[in-house]
Amino acid sequence: MRRSCSCSSSATNGLRVGHHPERAVRRPVRPVPVSGTDVFLCRLVDVPDGGSRGFDPARTGQDTVVVVRRGERLYAWRDACPHHGGTPMAWRKDAYLNAARDRIVCAAHGAQFDIATGICTLGPCLGQRLQKVALDVRDNEIYLKET
């Protein structure tokens, strides 16, 4: 009989993740599901604590979602700076954080965003915010929730 961890949960931004990432099972990459279902992004262990990762859930060739992990919490945002027409923020693949790893940075404009709230704290879009993306964690896997 398989038991699930009581510490796993489903939520929106600030999602608490399970305490047992070491139990994650390697699974093959999944195809993008049809509309109306959640989209598999990656395994929980694929987003390191203190790290960020970009995703292309629609398979367009460009990352449109950024996920940041801070301890047991995940924060997900559209990869689009509010300053200028939704400009992608990473200067290279998965490079979304400043050197201190405490802010999301738009490489095009230098804007800095609070990881937990998405609010711009420095730069040309001061006070504006990133668009939240809802996630779900199931069986140590991260899914983009279909809205």
Automatic annotation (TrEMBL):
Keywords: 2Fe-2S, Iron, Iron-sulfur, Metal-binding. InterPro entries: Rieske_2Fe-2S (IPR017941), Rieske_2Fe-2S_sf (IPR036922). Residues 1-22 are annotated as: Disordered. Residues 1-13 have a biased composition (Polar residues). Residues 39-144 form the Rieske domain. One of its GO terms (molecular function) is 2 iron, 2 sulfur cluster binding. It comes from the Bacteria. SUPFAM superfamilies: ISP domain. It holds the Pfam family Rieske. This is Rieske 2Fe-2S domain-containing protein. It comes from Massilia cellulosiltytica.
